Amino acid sequence: MVDDATRKSLSSIPLLRTKAGPRDKEAWVARLKEEYQALIKYVQNNKDADNDWFRLESNKEGSRWFGKCWFIHDLLKYEFDVEFDIPVTYPTTAPEIALPELDGKTAKMYRGGRICLTDHFKPLWARNVPKFGIAHAMALGLGPWLAVEIPDMIQRGVVTYAEKKA
After folding, report:
1. Residue 32: what pLDDT?
2. What does the DSSP 8-state code read for residue 55?
3. What is the DSSP letter of 14?
C-alpha cells in the first residue's frame, strides 16, 4: 500500500505511546508533548529532504490546529489554509483535516472542506492506535491527498495560481 519513499519518511517519524485525548487532562499534556516532538521531527526531516510543505500551530489546549500547506506544480506554489480539531475520542478517531477554501471543488472532499481519508487512511490509522499522531496524519493523509487532487484540480481549472502580493 505504501511506496518506499513514504515508508522511509514514515519510519523516521517517532511513534507515540500515550493513549489520551483532549478530555484526559494530565495524560493529554503528555500526549501533546509527544505530538509536538513527532511533528518537529517530521518537519525537520522534510526540510532536510528539501520537501517542506506545511506549517502547523495549535491553540493553547492543543485541541484546534491550523496553518498552511502548499503544493508545487509546474514550478508554481499553490498555498492553502489547513485546519482541524482533535476529536474527543482521539487518538482512536483520526482528525478530519480541512482545506476550507477548496470546499466543493472536488468529489474527494466533505462539507466544510474536509478531505476524504475514509478508504485508505482511516483503516491504517485504526490499526496503529495510539502510535499514530498528527505528523502521521499529515504524512499519510494530507500529503498524498494533495499530490493526487491538486494537479487534477489545476488541470480542470478549478484551482488557479494566485501570485502573492507583498
Report:
1. 97
2. E
3. P
Q: Does 116 participate in catalysis according to the annotation?
A: yes
Per-residue cell: 94: 483520526
26 Cβ neighbours under 8 A, 6+ residues apart: none
d(CA 109, CA 160): 18
Query: Is the pLDDT reported for residue 164 higher than 70?
Result: no
**pLDDT, tens digit (0-9, with 9 covering 90-100), for 131-150:** 999 999 999 999 999 999 99
- Quote the Cα angle for 87-51-157, to 5°: 80
Query: Residue 138 carries which side chain, given as an amino acid letter?
Result: M
DSSP state, residue 142: I
1: pLDDT confidence band, cut at 50, 70 and 90?
low
Q: What b-and-e string marks burial along 40-61, b requiring 16 or more CB atoms within 10 Å of the CB?
A: eebbebbeeeeeebbebebeee
Q: Are strands 54-58 and 64-73 parallel, antiparallel or unpaired?
A: antiparallel
Which residues touch 137 (CB under 8 Å, ≥6 apart)?
94, 95, 97, 121, 125
For position 4, what pLDDT does the model report? 75
Q: Which domains does the chain have, with CATH numbers?
A: 4-155 (3.10.110.10)
Choosing from 10, 30, 43, 116, the catalytic residue is: 116
